[in-house]
């Protein structure tokens, strides 16, 4: 199978509705960020419906990780690619924009509405013991979660790039880079874009 | 929407409020455009250290809410902040700032990627930036450890909750939802009883005031 081959599909109105509704239902399940729902999205878009190729799915996630902005934007990219694959006539960019907008709206609308209402309520009731206990009791978990997320991001370095994955020992310079960055962020106020620029440069030199 | 006036929180004295919805939109655009992979690091830097819209402690506390709610954490956080200051308009301004510019960048990148994905330099740069992004998140977590100093939980309880979270998430890779529900529930219950003890100790001389459901 050609890895770059994209499926040629034809989506009708009900297909588009299904797509948006699927993301809307995932929206309320996406505790901890949209990235936690990727296994289900893969099952739906690639395996079940065949609207995206394996390569398109993986590239969408990798690109969104590398691009600025919240990672949830990878869902817009999934929709964009579904639109591009859609050979239902008309300009492909039009379908791509429709796909991107539909998927992003679907995944954000339910959760954002809920967060908005909760934020109003919890702010109005912020002196209640239950609300204070919730925020303060979760604080150690939140801090540990940040460190864990960084740990996971760092440890998947070797697996992220298939052409280098076999050579696990080549990952150590990247782990050193991660550790050095963590120290600099913790102890200095160096602008984060300098660190990212340096990371890109080191990556080019090592690559 | 009118805000109910509440007694000033001593911790917010050092913070300032966003000036307008335009301010929210611009600030979150700047924030989002800097967030490569590790947006949490940039959010702490921009919102706490540069804009002074919140303290480190408030950041962690709001992050707890943003984290436990469905949806992307930082999108949730921006929404909550916008809503607090300017209601629905503020929430939408912050959300639009978070998403519009980065979306344009991402779609342009996706278009470029189809042409340059084979270049080894591109792959190398992406990989290096990925390693740095991981460091940004870890460093931010380390920096926020200081916010736990004023936490009502006993230091041993904090350490236990934090380590349990790290082991289950980073090593065992358990699903986040269950870890958050379990550890969050324990943390909530412990904090509740510690806060109750404190309030009781404070109100004991005057009798049974201050007890609330």
Automatic annotation (TrEMBL), chain A:
Q: Which domain of life is it from?
A: Bacteria
Places the protein is found: Cell membrane
Q: Which residues cross the membrane?
A: 16-36, 57-80, 92-117, 137-154, 174-206
Membrane topology value: Multi-pass membrane protein
Work out whether the entry's keyword set contains Cell membrane.
yes
Query: What do the Gene Ontology cellular component annotations say?
Result: plasma membrane
Q: Please list the GO terms describing molecular function.
A: chromate transmembrane transporter activity
**Any idea which UniProt keywords this protein has?**
Cell membrane, Membrane, Transmembrane, Transmembrane helix
Give the UniProt family note: Belongs to the chromate ion transporter (CHR) (TC 2.A.51) family.
Mind telling me what this protein is named? Answer: Chromate transporter
From TrEMBL, chain B:
One GO cellular component this record assigns the protein to is: plasma membrane
Coiled-coil segments on the chain, per record: none
Key word Lipid metabolism present in the record?
A: no
- One of its Pfam families is Chromate_transp
**What keywords were assigned to this record?**
Cell membrane, Membrane, Transmembrane, Transmembrane helix
Q: According to its record, how does it sit in the membrane?
A: Multi-pass membrane protein
**GO MF annotation: an example:** chromate transmembrane transporter activity
Note whether Transmembrane helix occurs among the keywords: yes
List membrane-spanning regions: 24-43, 90-113, 125-146, 158-174
List localization entries.
Cell membrane
Q: Which family does it belong to?
A: Belongs to the chromate ion transporter (CHR) (TC 2.A.51) family.
Which PANTHER family does the record match to this protein? CHROMATE TRANSPORT PROTEIN-RELATED, CHROMATE TRANSPORTER
Under which name does UniProt file this protein?
Chromate transporter
């Amino acid at each position: 199978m050609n890895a770059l081959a994209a499926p040629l599909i034809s989506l009708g109105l009900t297909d588009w509705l299904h797509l948006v509704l699927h993301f809307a239902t995932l929206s309320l399940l996406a505790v901890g960020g949209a990235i936690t729902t990727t296994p289900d999205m893969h099952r739906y878009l690639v395996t079940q419906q065949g609207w995206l190729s394996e390569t398109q799915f993986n590239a969408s996630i990798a690109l969104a990780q590398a691009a600025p902005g919240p990672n949830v934007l990878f869902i817009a990219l999934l929709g964009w690619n579904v639109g591009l694959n859609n050979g239902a006539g008309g300009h492909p960019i039009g379908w791509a924009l429709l796909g991107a907008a539909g998927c992003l709206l679907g995944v954000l609308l339910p959760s954002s509405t809920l967060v908005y209402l909760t934020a109003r309520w919890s702010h109005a009731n912020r002196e209640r013991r239950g609300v204070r206990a919730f925020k303060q009791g979760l604080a150690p978990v939140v801090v540990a979660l940040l460190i864990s997320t960084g740990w996971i991001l760092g440890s998947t370095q070797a697996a992220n790039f298939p052409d280098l994955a076999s050579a696990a020992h080549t990952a150590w310079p990247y782990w050193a880079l991660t550790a050095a960055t963590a120290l600099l962020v913790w102890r200095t106020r160096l602008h984060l874009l300098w660190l990212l620029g340096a990371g890109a440069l080191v990556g080019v030199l090592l690559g | 929407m009118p805000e109910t006036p509440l007694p000033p929180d001593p911790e917010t004295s050092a913070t300032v409020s966003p000036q307008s919805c335009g301010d929210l939109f611009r600030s979150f655009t700047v924030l989002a455009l800097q967030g490569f992979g590790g947006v949490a690091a940039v959010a702490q830097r921009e919102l706490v250290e540069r804009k002074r819209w919140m303290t480190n402690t408030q950041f962690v506390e709001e992050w707890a809410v943003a984290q436990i709610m469905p949806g992307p954490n930082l999108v949730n956080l921006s929404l909550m902040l916008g809503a607090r200051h300017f209601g629905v308009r503020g929430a939408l301004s912050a959300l639009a700032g978070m998403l519009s510019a980065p979306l344009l960048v991402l779609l342009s990148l996706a278009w470029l990627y189809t042409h340059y994905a084979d270049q080894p330099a591109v792959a190398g740069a992406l990989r290096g930036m990925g390693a740095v992004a991981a460091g940004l998140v870890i460093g931010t977590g380390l920096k926020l450890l200081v916010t736990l100093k004023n936490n009502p939980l006993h230091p041993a309880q904090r350490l236990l909750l934090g380590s349990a979270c790290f082991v289950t998430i980073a090593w065992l890779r358990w699903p986040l939802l269950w870890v958050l529900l379990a550890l969050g529930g324990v943390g909530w219950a412990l904090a509740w009883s510690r806060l109750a003890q404190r309030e009781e100790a404070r109100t004991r001389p005057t009798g049974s005031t201050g007890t609330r459901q």
